């Protein structure tokens, strides 16, 4: 937590600091040699876990049936922020056992507030210096959101202030549940980096994205 916050504090932010937002994609995800800025990765939901993948398929099948449409691929979003102080991987993931350094800055409950008493029903928000994610599974990534140092530092500064809403519930009143994608969209919304050009690959969906934008607008 301290590393993430320290990296964010080492610059005096100005509203006009940083390069204009430019949305570009690469078909070869890699964190090697990344320049200063913010990049977004789209990972197929459940790329690293059978249980999550199965749960996602069941959820999307039910959602598609209710909306009378065909099922669509679901995606999990991850941010990679690079500043002169280092590279940070920011994402929401299931809480793991204590003792492993993953740059965890916050926790939240899954399904209900009371469930948070049990580790297996908690999620963690990571701001992991030199961290890793499932880069090998990324689709149409990375999406280069900005090359500005100011917005990148501001985003790092905001990670530890993200609201810990219950995963899977609509506590925001946005009409959809809070998920890992809510963290990503909340951060992009709060830093003014969100754009209509940022969307999942193909006809994919990122459940929770709108919830994060709604929460970001209310936090402004």
* Elements, N to C (H/E): HEEHEEEEEHHH
Mean pLDDT value: 82
Tell me the structural class. Answer: alpha+beta
Low-confidence stretches: 9-31
The amount of helix comes to 25-40%
**Regarding quaternary structure, how should these chains be classified?**
single chain
Shape: globular
Please state how the strands of the largest beta sheet are arranged side by side. 1-7-2-3-4-6-5
Number of helices: 5
Q: Compute the separation of the termini in Å.
A: 23 Å
- Strand tally: 7
Largest sheet: 7 strands, antiparallel
The portion of residues forming beta strands comes to 15-25%
Could you tell me the radius of gyration in angstroms? Answer: 17 Å
Walkthrough of the structure:
There is one protein chain. The chain has five helices and seven strands. The chain has helices at residues 2-9, 50-67, 149-159, 180-190, 209-219; strands at residues 24-25, 37-44, 75-83, 86-94, 104-109, 122-129, 143-146. The chain has a seven-stranded antiparallel beta sheet. A hairpin with a 2-residue loop joins strand 3 (75-83) and strand 4 (86-94). The protein is globular.
